[in-house]
Structure formats: structure tokens, C-alpha cells
From TrEMBL:
The protein, known as: Vacuolar protein sorting-associated protein 16 homolog
Predominant location: membrane
Location(s), subcellular: Late endosome membrane; Lysosome membrane
Gene this protein is translated from: VPS16
Entry GO terms, CC: early endosome; HOPS complex; late endosome membrane; lysosomal membrane
Amino acid sequence: MDCYTANWNPLGDSAFYRKYELYSMDWDLKEELRDCLVAAAPYGGPIALLRNPWRKEKPASARPVLEIYSASGVPLASLLWKSGPVVSLGWSAEEELLCVQEDGVVLVYGLHGDFRRHFSMGNEVLQNRVLDARIFHTEFGSGVAILTGAHRFTLSANVGDLKLRRMPEVPGLQSAPSCWTALCQDRVAHILLAVGPDLYLLDHAACSAVTPPGLAPGVSSFLQMAVSFTYRHLALFTDTGYIWMGTASLKEKLCEFNCNIRAPPKQMVWCSRPRSKEKAVVVAWERRLMVVGDAPESIQFVLDEDSYLVPELDGVRVFSRSTHEFLHEVPVASEEIFKIASMAPGALLLEAQKEYEKESQKADEYLREIQELGQLPQAVQQCIEAAGHEHWPDMQKSLLRAASFGKCFLDRFPPDSFVRMCQDLRVLNAVRDYHIGIPLTYSQYKQLTIQVLLDRLVLRRLYPLAIQICEYLRLPEVQGVSRILAHWACYKVQQKDVSDEDVARAINQKLGDTPGVSYSDIAARAYGCGRTELAIKLLEYEPRSGEQVPLLLKMKRSKLALSKAIESGDTDLVFTVLLHLKNELNRGDFFMTLRNQPMALSLYRQFCKHQELETLKDLYNQDDNHQELGSFHIRASYAAEERIEGRVAALQTAADAFYKAKNEFAAKATEDQMRLLRLQRRLEDELGGRFLDLSLHDTVTTLILSGQNKRAEQLARDFRIPDKSFPTGSGG
């Protein structure tokens, strides 16, 4: 135990800090970190270096190179920088690299150096150029804050939904502030800057002078400021060598420390653990690292090489050319178990388990002591919790063995926490591996969630490991394996050195009918990569026609889309394709396409009967369908024409169509109707009354009732009404 705590350093009486190595870095850096722009993503994220940046004191002799590494130093991407001068680098919450150029354009790159998009921070920034920039994170996303050459600030709180805000002017500001940072208070982004001995807080409406409470006198300038990982606390380094620590609202002072060094530090970041009462700040100079807090003494480390600090949720990562280390406050459970002469239940249980392995009777003595105090459940829980905070698997196993040993003497200890910790540690140890290079702590893992971790493995194209984790944790397929396989397939379609058939076959063999996988989404990615034929092949595996058809239409494969829609039997889908075809093709080609698809033609006719009668007539003409054409003109004579001449003309056209269709009965009936219409008009003119549109029988009846027996008899003879059908009236 004494050896285990050798790297523990006390800060005051209530907290210990330790620094241990995560990786021995094997990257081949040809320049010092100080000569590069550096950006490292939190939660064990990647590191970006832009070699040979545009420096006034050291002009670049060649084009700079942008390089991206994992946290263990494994190269992920390298590309020659061909764009403009870069002022700042930073990682978004989605692990996209944001490169802020001097002209205000922000270029966005993926983890593997693939260009994603770009956006501009506005014309004012373009005109005045960028002096400095910060990438920060809020609950809404990742933001960018810009300091221009006119000493004005512009920011966007979410680069995913770009809304630029020009911050108010600072009165009398003639030069760049000595230091500044972005704050997030009450869901709003602010800018805090230092001008000489004064601090100013900029929000969207005003510039306010602020004063840190309890600040030591004699300050003439602020040299550095740092915001905590959660944006709740603020640290200020003054030219007097004092470090002021308080709330980010500048309403409460936590402590103040005199480090007796007046030289401005290279970096200053917060180092605090969630739910810990201790607050500490890590300050780095060229060859010195100092941890300060609410204690009269500090912790100091010697830096053998140029180093860079990365603030984390529960500590600070420190990397250099040769090593990558983690500095953090020792968690309470670990402190109680491992500190010298500890009599905590967890410490006794760990000793009991070790003595048990030695087959020593002391194991029983330790165990009885814990049981007499009724602290065995607490001891088991302490060992489980401490195991989660240990980085080395051997110590994790030792603590978990102790917890398992203690559980054997408890009747009703719920196993969930023990099982869950074993699962979590197995996942963490897998992703901490040098070749994976994601050194997550247990606290970071819980904050990040397993779904985000899987997304990050997918982003690194570590599909087999992601699938193994899903299967090990027994995640639902839709959330786990299916989702990862879909991402793998989307990556597979981008491999243009493999033929379309081979890619489609490989994807289908791997995915099969996996639930939750959409072949149409994969096909859409293939189409976006310019591989239309591959997209069509992939759509053949898509069982849902409703997903196939829209993409086929987008790819301008409308005839194939029509076939798929017809196969589905979904009339709404067929109508969608038909309307698309109608707008895409000329009239003749459209009708020819319909002739080859009887079901589509039938549905379109139904549509035209209600919406486009003229188109329906053209369809009948195109098909030489004289029978339907005749019926169409008969309906038209009643629906559209009011003048008798127009109706008769329409009926004549119908009769001609029926003759062409060799339907003499319909033709004769139509001609009889024409004769009846003319007669009815004549009767109305001569006798008055209403005759038009009456049936033949009703016309005769009306004549009889009007006393026009002779006319009725003549009408019966003209239209050959049988005697037994001839109506009789009271006026006869």
C-alpha cells in the first residue's frame, strides 16, 4: 500500500492528487509542441497539430502540415494545408476539427482529415481579420468566439446552427486584451476580457465592468484566465503572481494563492472532480507544473519537455513528445482504501481478501472486525467504487476480488452494481488500449454514455470493437449492432477501388435482414458519393418500397421507381411516381410509359376522371380506345355544355366514336338521343314548359298531359315505342 500511494501528493489536509502515465507516445514529432498550433478534444479525444504555422517570428519555409493523432499518438490523418493562414484550432463536441482562418472562414474536418464543410464568421471579421479565436462548448453545441483586428468580438454559440452575434464595443479599447475567454451563464454565451487592471463582461446587449470580490491589491494586469470544464468556476492569474479562484459569475471568491511567479504561464486549466468540494487549478510554465487550491502549499512537478494541458471533467491530461499522463484528485473511495494506516471498511476487506489468498487466519480477523461494525455492505461498495477509478487492470481485479469475497458473507447484497462495474471496466480497458487510444476515466465514461462512446468508435472506423461491445453489453440491435453495421456499410460504399457488385454483395452478406438497418439510407450515401449503379443494386435489398421509390426518383430512375411502386401495390406510391413522371417527361413519352404499365394506366385514368378530363381524352385518343372515347363525349355533353348545339355536337362526336368502335347499338342510341334533344328544344319553343333532358317516356307523358295527343302519337311512331309501353293520360 505504501508503494501504491508513492505518487500521491497532498494539497492541504483534505485532498490528494496523483499523476500517472496513460501512454508512452510513439508519434514522430519533428518539431516542438510550442512551434505548432495544438488542439486536443476532451473525453480522451484526438490531438490535432498544425506544423509550421504562420508565425511572425518564425516564417514557414514550406506548406504547413495538419496532422491528427489518437490520444496514444497513433496517426489518424495527415494532410498538406493548402488554405489560408490559421489562427486557432479546436474540436467540436462531435469530434470535428474546426480550423479558424485569419479571414474569418472556419474549415471543418473529420477525424480522418476528410473535409466536411466551411462557414464564415461574417464580413466584418473578413475586413478586420482575426487576431485570436476560441472554440468553446455549451449545452446547445460547440461555439466559436472571434477577436478581430478592430478589437471587436463576434461569436456563434452553435456552429451547427450558425447565428452570428456581434458583441458590444469595449469603451476605450485600443489594443488587444491581455487575456479573454468565453463564458456560458444562464444558457447564454458571454465574453470576459481583461484590459489592464479592469475586467469587462460582454453579453448580447451591453458591456459591463466587473470586479472579482476579494482580489489582492496591487494588480495592474491580468495575464491568464481559465474557466472550469462545467463553466461554473473562473481562475485569474495576475501580474503580482496571485491566482484568484471563484465562481464564473464573479460574485463569490473561493480562494486566492500566491505562487510567487510573475511570469505569464503558458496554460492554466481547472482540475476538479465532480461532486468534490476541493477546487484546484493547474498552471504550466516552460518547465514547471503547479497545482494550487485552497491550501497554503502547492504541488509542483518538473516538466522535462514542452507539454500541453487538456482539461477534462475530472482532471487534466498532460502530454508531451514522449508521454501522455493524467493528473487528478484521488477519489474518496480510493483514498479511504489505500491511504496509509487506513481502517476504512474497504481497506480492511482488501486486506482480508489478500490474507485469504495466503491462507492466513488473519483474513477471518479482518472480516470479523468489519462484520462487528456492521460495515460489510459499505466495504463491498467501497471496493467496487474504487475499482472503477483505477486505471491499471491488475488493481481493478484486486479490488473486485475483494468485493466478490465480501459479497459471499452477505445474504442480500444486490449484485447489480458489481456486475455493472465489471462490464464497464471491461469496456473501458478495451478502449484504453494503445491501438484504440481513448483514455476515458470511469466518470467521463458515465457522463459520455455508452451510445456516444459507440459513436466515437464508429467515427474511428473501429467497427469490430464496437460490435463486440454491443454484443457483450447485450444492447438492443437497433441501438447497437444494427446501427454500427449501417455505419460500416455507409463507409464501405465510399471505397471506390472496389466494384459495385462486390460492394453490394459484401454489404448484403454482412447485413442480411438485420432489423433496424435501412438499405435505402446506405443507397442514399452511395448516390451521394456518385455511385448511382451501386445505389440501385443496394435498393434491390430494401424490402420497403416506400423507401426505395423516393430515392429512385431522386436518382432520376423514374421508370424503375414506377415498377417498384406497382410491385408494392400501394396506390398512393404509384400516384406519387406518376405525378413525378408527368412533370419530368414530355406528354408523348409519358403516355408511352403508361401503355407499358396497365395498372399505372388504370390508376392514372381514375385520377384524370376526377382531376384532368382533357388528359383523359388524350389518353383514349393515344390508345385508339373509341369505345371509352365515345363514353367520354357523352359525359362531356351533359357535364360541360349548356347550349343545345354544343351538346348535340358532343353527342355526334360520341356517335362517330362508337361507329369506329363497331358498337352500332351505342351509336344508334346516341343518334336517337340527338334527335330527342332537338325535338325537345322545338317543343319548348312552340309549347313552352320544360321538356329538355326528359326521358322519351316522360316526354310523351308530358305531351299527353298537356293535351298534345297527336304530337305524342307522332313521337311514339318516330321512336318506335311499342303500344303496350305507350302511356295513357287523363287528357286523351
